[in-house]
Predict the structure.
Amino acid sequence: MPVDHLSITFAALADPTRRAILSRLVSGEASVTELAEPFDMTMPAISKHLKVLEHAGLVARDRHAQWRPCRLTAAPLEDVADWVDHYRRFWEENLDRLGGFLSQLQTEEKKRGHTKRKRK
Amino acid sequence: MATQSASGSNSMKPTERAVVITRTYDAPRALVFKAWTDPELLRQWWGPAPFTNPVCETDPRVGGKWHIVMRAPDGTDYPCGGVYREIVEPELLVFTNIATDAAGSPILDGLTRVTFTEQGGKTTVTVDTRATAVVAYAAAYLDGMEMGWVQSLDGLGALIPKL
């Protein structure tokens, strides 16, 4: 398991400015200047954030185009946030909890002295 | 940097994945089915273990709606709900399940088919659920689910020493 890579991605996501940059990139590529606009930050500060995101593989920059637009590369995000995994775990936990609830329910019923005759 | 991997095929497309889970319970089928449809029972088990369900409403008939608000231990509410598509008591339950973030934007859109079979007094429940999530969900997550990330990190941290 690429735990190291996960840690890098998590570390990149741990900062609100970097998450805001990613959110902005969801709607399309942008230049560093455009990305810097909503923040009260210097260009070098934004560049630093972008480097972290690039290093985590969350953002790619076109090396050829003159203005080097930044774009989102969501694959690592999918790995981390792997929603299917969350979704499966949700249902697994759900069904386990149902099991616990059902046995509790039946124990309570027995305790209440509901000696219903078993039908065969 | 001449080699661009195929994964660069922009992951903005919606992706659908299926999850199938089976459990067998030592309980009669009628009771298990009731636990899914009676809101007073459903609210007592739905969701991950530490969550409570302050809102739980069901209208178990075709076209009827269900709506649950799951509350995390930190007080965050996670609403979900949908519409019943098929009901064959006590064998089958098909419903849509839509999860939204706190702001009401859908995170995923699912269709769940639950079958109940009984043998020797035990009931086997099979959940076949498929969901669609657009990767744009990431934006919603990134904006609103800061806590989620932090918890994932904590979870990861707690897990690693055990590995």
